[in-house]
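Before the break, one more example. Copy the sequence into your notebook; we will annotate it together after we see the structure.
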Amino acid sequence: QTVAHPSEGPIRAVRPPTLFSASPAELARHAPRIGEHTLDVLREAGLCDQEIAQLQQRGTILCA
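Here is what the structure looks like once it is written out:
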């Protein structure tokens, strides 16, 4: 299945393996960009903005 990605253009993806007659399975969203959810994940893990900034400065993490 080809899906449109907002920054990468058309991408070939594996469609869901199930087939339903009344409600066909579809991809809900595009693949995340590198670093797209990094800040959310680290904040949810309990890191403060200062700790996250230090990780960015060291090149340990990438943020979109």
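The longest helix spans residues 49-58. The beta strands are 2-5, 9-12. Try to locate both features in your own notes.
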